[in-house]
Amino acid sequence: MASPIDPSEDGPLFWWGSPNATNFGDYLSKVVVERLAHVRLPDAPASLSSNRRLLLAVGSIIHFARDGDVVWGSGFRESPLQEDRRYRTLDVRAVRGPISRDYLLQMGIACPEVYGDPALLLPRLCPDLPPVEQQDECIVIPNCGEMDYFRHYRHVVMPTEPWTEIVAAIRRSRLVISSSLHGLIVAEAFGVPARLLKMTWIEPMLKYEDYYRATGRDRFAWATSVGEAVEMGGARAPVIDLQPLIDSFPGLPGVPAEHA
After folding, report:
1. Which is it for the CA torsion 47, 34, 31, 203, positive or negative?
2. Are residues 7 and 115 in the same domain?
3. pLDDT tens digits for 32-84?
């Protein structure tokens, strides 16, 4: 049984969180790390004001890092080179993709050539998920910043619903159409065809390109409408060896071995 970390204490895992809603893709950081580290983590991300070293896993969150923090599978949302940074040194074990690695190397930060979004590990880490029956219809998963555009669409799954319900909806679908990066990632992790939807430019393209390049697809096409996405069908399946990502998992900074 997983050992709990005192919920009254600030945890060692940071992910992006909003006081108004939980984005399932970011919350998957807790899901994945709990299962790999054999711990139960607090239900809220660590505070960036904490004095302890933090682990940054799932999400476009490297720009939140501070000196000495540990990066495992995170990426950039947009170019960091012109930003004021809180870090000059990081302990990088893996990144989401080669674009994120290139940025870190340009900053003089060592980064191994180990790629992969940790959410790709969900099928391995959650073998107890109940079976589902695949249905004929597709689903649409918008990015958090685009939800208002999709309120009246059919078969929409909002990214703020519980992660278990979203994963179940993905696994039941024959096609996932998504502007949520983790809608795409989770679908492809479970072998469900997925197509990137770009109806707005609220989210920069960098994070999608980073993921696709890490999974063997230097070129990829996106749809500009739901109808076009249905016509295009899913993208070519990802190709990636996830064992280096698993092997590079650093554990949780400052967590005693008895929690493992």
Report:
1. positive
2. yes
3. 999 999 999 998 999 999 899 999 999 999 999 999 999 999 999 999 876 66
Distance CA 39, CA 247 (A): 18
For residues 160 and 147, what is the distance between their CA atoms, to the nearest angstrom? 9
Q: Name the pTM for this structure.
A: 0.93
110 found inside a domain: yes
Domain that holds residue 7: 3-119+243-259
Give CA torsion, residues 145, 149, 154, 159, to 10 deg. 10
What is the four-CA torsion angle of 169, 122, 222, 116, rounded to 10 degrees? Answer: 170
- Can you list the alpha helix ranges (DSSP code H) found in the chain? 24-37, 98-106, 122-125, 163-172, 181-189, 206-214, 226-232, 243-247
Number of domains in the chain: 2
Residue 90: which residues within 8 A CB-CB, separation 6 or more? Answer: 62, 65, 67, 68, 69, 70, 71, 104, 109
One domain, residues 141 and 184 = yes
Please report the beta strands in 64-137, taking only residues with DSSP state E, as ranges in sequence order: 70-74, 91-95
Q: Are residues 128 and 110 in the same domain?
A: no
Q: Answer whether 68's CB lies under 8 Å from 46's CB.
A: no
